[in-house]
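Worked problem 6 (solution included).
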Amino acid sequence: MVSGQLLGFDHFITSHAAATDEEICTGVNYGSGSAGIREESGSHLGDRVCLDKQLSNHEQILARISALQQNQTLTDEHLRKCIYIVNMGNNDYINNYLMPELYNSSHQYKMEQFSEVLAQQFTQQLKKLYRLGARKVAVFGLGMIGCAPALMDRFETDGHCVDWINDAVMLFNNRLKPLVDELNFVFPDAKFTFINITNILAPKGGEPLPNKPCCPVRPDGQCVPDGICCPSRSLSVYLDSFHPTEIANIVLATRAYKAQSSLDASPMDIGQLTRDITDT
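Solution. The predicted structure is:
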């Protein structure tokens, strides 16, 4: 993960399920493909670990750290220095709200209502993360899902972004900065910050890169095994029909760590969160 490299890690952070006692004090990855803020998101794809379950897994890791250190004050001080990166919500749209044939959410809620319900649940989850000791939290917004090749193909837009999907996503994104501001007000001993993916990845002058997969894709939108990828991945935003290429990830992680604009991160970038740790 590029963010981990920028934070000084020389290897990928270990999954919580495989992390040794030594590794859990360095960093743990709770991520799960297709998982969402809502428990049911992505269920048609098989097993996944929703955010509520990820928080439960985090509680188990904290119990192990506490048992190792045998000093709650020391454990609390350790957690206050940790950087938490939370990047959730894309699957609540891609693999839930935008699949009315499989999920009830779009039948139950209009777009504005869904963004509000989703943000309310996310708020409670972030508050729980705080109660578990988190004090430095970077909350990533959602990308422009309507520009993903899979969604453009599904809604037959002839290579154009699906504007109504992007509008739906922005209803949720626009709630995140006020949410972060509220958490910083309610928890003055913590620092939450909002990373604005939409602004970071928006085309800035010149010809925008094509929103086409770099690899031949299967019906589920992922790369065909052993398929021949495009000759220059640096000229592509998407590797497959959903996931960005390495160059897109590098741009996102670099500007999340060191913002080029006040719109990239608010109230601070991840680098400032790190410097705040070293200064205290």
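Discussion: The longest strand covers residues 136-140.
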